[in-house]
Amino acid sequence: MFDLFIYNDIKPGKLRKQFDKTVEQLSRGDFVSAEVKKMRDTGLYRARLDYENRLLFRFGRYNDRTCLLILEIIMNHAYDKSRFLRGSGVDESKLLPVRSQQEVPEGDLVPLTFLNPRNSRFHLLDKVLSFDDRQEEVLSLPLPHIVIGSAGSGKTALTLEKMKSLTGRVLYITLSPFLAENSARLFYSFNYENDKLEIDFLSYREFLETLKIPDGKEVDFRTFESWFARHRQATRLRDAHKTFEEYRGVITGQDITKEYLSFDEYLALGVKQSIFPVRERETVYRLFEKYLLFLKENDFYDVNILTHQWLSYCKPVYDYIVVDEVQDFTNIQLHIILKSLNNPTNFILCGDSNQVVYPNFFSWSHLKSMFYRSGLIENEVKILRANYRNSQTITTLANRLLKIKNARFGSIDKESNYLLTTDTAVKGDAVFIEQVGNAVADLGQKTRQSVKYAVLVLRNEDKAKAREFFKTPLLFSVQELKGLEYENVILYNFISENAAEYNAVCEGVTRDNLLVDELTYARGKDKTDKSHEIYKFYINALYVALTRAVKNVFIVEKSGGHKLLRLLEIAEDAPKRIMKEEISSADDWKMEARRLEMQGKTEQVDAIRKGMLATVKPDWEPMTIEQYRITKEEALNPENFNKKAKDRLFDFALLHNQEVVIRQLAELKYKRAERFETERSSLYRKYYHHYKKDNLQMILPLLNRYGVDYRDQHNFTPLHAAAFAGAVKIAKTLLSHGASPSSLDTFRKTPLQITLEQAFLSSDYARNRLGEIYPLLLTDALKIQTDGFLIKIDPHKVEYLLINLFLVVQPMILQKKSFYEEMAVKIDDLIENLQHFSDAVLPPHRKKRTYMLALLAKHEIESNNPYNKKIFKRISRGNYQLNPDLAILIDGNWVSVVDIFNYRDLSVVELREHALQREVKEMEAFRKKMEKERKNREKWGW
Ligand SMILES: Nc1ncnc2c1ncn2[C@@H]1O[C@H](COP(=O)(O)OP(=O)(O)OP(=O)(O)O)[C@@H](O)[C@H]1O
């Protein structure tokens, strides 16, 4: 007998009877009656519902019990439409029958962190999630509501699932761009689709940019700190962090009616409203005035002031808004976010005030009172306490830290007054290491090659010192590690480097204060005591740091004996732990690089590539853009016949469908260029034979030698080559080893664009390769702008496909146009080729001429459609070009479409010029022919 859980999105409808019957057979373990078969290489299994319909499922493991997870109903044998098998052709006759559980290999059982026995339905993000009763309760709450939860309690997971039940235009917003991107990725895991939803996953900065892209750069703490240092002597203000916090959370950000407080208003603030005592405020404010000048003169902006200025651009456009990590926002930021709601109560806020590490003045009670006043929220505040990330030891430590905080500063507010709970059986360990002898060097040595250890420092600036001992690429500041987790975390000199601050944190706290089982609700006694605001960065950063450790924490300090260590009950004199050196395999490191790359942690990814995956530099010269220009000049020089340059240019031009260049070569009597289409197969044979055959074994030696993102002679990475040839197996392996789907080739094409180009060119590729390879190559959301504001387009949207498609096929099409034709793409230029595209990429209804025409019209500059993204310029009826004013964010820079095509030597102007020259040449040839004919007639007397 199996415990059986069903994905909450499954609706059997008319198949209810068959569904129930098969589910019952499966739960009895009667695999023969259910006709269970294994889908190769996927860990997935299918059972039979009836003659034409199937049930897809997999096995899970929780607390030593095997369970069955029902994932999807597959109608009419259409495996290629399955969310989990998208695009892959499955031949039922080749599937392996499975008669009993004994035939299921251990590796096919997904390990599960938790299964709620009271709920047979599960949810799905990047993994199977069975919510506990409290989580389920929160999920079913009507809007608006506030979810408060400790680290690792599933706030993000829960709100993402909640979003799936909404309809209309939804904004998911958080301060960190990595979290926004990561949440989008979680949301769309396993090709999740929902036609009723139009979601924007935005970081706060992107949100502001969707209103209007500001000039200049946002001032960050580091810039502020070096500016502050220049004024330290004159002002006698010592603490840059505290001052920055006062500017970002008190003088600006708090009062939503103005950009910043006036001098008098600032002075008049009550003791609870500012971090500085009244006597220091004049100095603080005078420096603030200088700060404003500094911003102006150096093209920086302050995000709160900018937000206030941006209010006038903000219109109500969203039906629902989810604010994740709400504790990171200031009042004015929340105000503008919620101002974009159609109905002011359709929001969910979630966060954890113990994780505030950005400067602001956050408290739940303050936040709630903001909403109570406006009557928006009454009682809908729910607290999640169960922790799904950390071991017992880490949870205990985190709780001790919360108790210290509570004893020292009183309760921040009623809502944050709780401890974490956990059900985990994993014990974990907390190890103290004092920096004497070679203890730290030894720890550094033993862990540097392991993907299971991350080293954490308080601030970015502290990394240099940590690097002396820790050569691992996995070195992070606390802010960087938000949202991430590692089995082991090493905290480096958190306390010793900030001894005074952590001393102040422990002031007056005794062990007896920590003997409580729950936090008591009590305000700090002294209202003028601003210590919490001042020290919250230190204590919260330590809390975030600790809770990143799934199992063990290593606390490395220059010196021991700190009171905080005693209060945390970290055994300083525990017998020395004998550690074995841990070495992760190259594959593990590749996987880790990929994981970090997905989170945008480029610094660590580069360090992994350089340090752990060191490879040999190829001894050939890839065709970079500079090399291309030189080769082109050499090859097209009529004075000097350079066969080598011509060969190289021709191969490269054919690879990129640069027909104009190929024609120029043909004019110079370069034979291969005259019938270039017949040369394609030899191009494959010569360079990409193994890719065409999807033969992984043959390219592995190159990958091992040169690394996963090396450049071949055409400046293709292996992933570009796999996209070019449609090599699905190779692409999967490359991606799992950290290859980047965002890498650009010489003409700034992504692997995905190469795939679309190939599919457009070859019906065989479009039918047989595109379906499986396309979803693998999706990049982060596309960021575009036309009228000075950002539009972010998620990869699952049809506009994402359309822009990528046009970027490659527009020049292909225009190159073929005669001088008398419109230099634009007609629907007839497209529609026939699109018919061959796999349905998994472009479903049948989107291949229809009427749908495509409507889509082009919807997004053309002049269209009145409210969702118009101004992607196209209408040249004449039914004739479109990509909007030349459209700019795309490439490697952090805005690049206009015109520049992209210019860069490829394929601008519309240039193509028109070529068409004209072609026309003139053809006319000349025609004239010569006619002249010859006239002479012949004369000669023969006709
Ligand atoms: N019911 C559950 N069963 C198993 N895993 C869960 C459950 N709920 C959450 N998780 C997992 O716990 C981890 C933490 O969840 P999530 O990131 O949503 O928490 P969070 O509250 O947003 O954390 P933090 O505030 O620390 O960023 C994730 O890996 C998530 O998938």
UniProtKB/TrEMBL annotation:
GO terms for cellular component: cytosol. This is DNA 3'-5' helicase II. It holds the Pfam family Ank. GO terms for molecular function: 3'-5' DNA helicase activity; ATP binding; DNA binding; hydrolase activity. Keywords: ANK repeat, ATP-binding, Helicase, Hydrolase, Nucleotide-binding. Gene3D superfamilies: Ankyrin repeat-containing domain (1.25.40.20), P-loop containing nucleotide triphosphate hydrolases (3.40.50.300). Residues 128-391 form the UvrD-like helicase ATP-binding domain. ANK repeats lie at residues 714-746. ATP binds at residues 149-156. InterPro entries: Ankyrin_rpt, Ankyrin_rpt-contain_sf, DNA_helicase_UvrD/REP, P-loop_NTPase, UvrD-like_ATP-bd. One of its GO terms (biological process) is recombinational repair. The lineage of its organism: Bacteria, Pseudomonadati, Bacteroidota, Bacteroidia, Bacteroidales.
